[in-house]
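Hey, quick one: can you model this chain's 3D structure?
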Amino acid sequence: MATTPAEADNAITGTVMFYKAPQPLSVEQHGKLGLRREDRPYAFAAEGHMTPLTVTEFANAAGSFPIIFVGDDKTPVGVLGLNAGESLFAEKDGSYTTGAYIPAYIRRYPFVLANDEGQQRMIVCIDRGSDLLVEGGEQPLFDDKGQPTEYTQNAIKFCDDFETERRRTESFVKLLIELDLLERTQSQFTPTLPNGQPGQPQLIAEFWGVSEEKLNKLPADKYIQLRDNGALSQIYAHLLSLNNWDKLIAIASSKSLAANAA
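Sure thing. Here's the predicted structure for all 262 residues.
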């Protein structure tokens, strides 16, 4: 269980996407802060073209954007944009595409858990650089007695649950690696020329993905293992999500046309 420290002297090292100035949550430093009620609170995510996903999110996310694996650790991420630093779902005005899945990584903001290496525990932090947090905000972080409000308690529980799912995701990826199911793959787009003929294919992204060929060649006992532990359905959600590259291209094209018209 994450804890809320009484003192905020702990140094937070490293960087976390979206978080400008993470600080350990404490009543001494943040007792007067509250969350500003905002109908469109997602401006902070407007520059996130990829966002980490937990494995239990795959089914919900698969209908909105591609799910791929990146980096040496094969971290699963949702692809939210085609260009670095540009989300196709979160806008600078704070709005988010209606009906599109919002990853838990985004929904937990401005809260986050951080490792306290000195005491070997997880501590609750907030992004003090967030403009969603202001003194006297409508949703206080602490009550008159200096205790976390129900809102803050729910936010801490959400972060705890996210950390649990993150560890489960690591186990899922480890299993994919052990079974040698991941391979380097590409997504390409073939534009249509003014004369109606197909143009030269263009590389959109290169990433790790599950090989359907390797999956289909698994020994029966390994395949059953994936089915019984729930991993198989998550694998198919990932594979299904790769059809969303065309959706991203269509959204990007639509936004480009709208910008040019404006």
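One thing worth noting: The first helix runs from residue 27 to 30.
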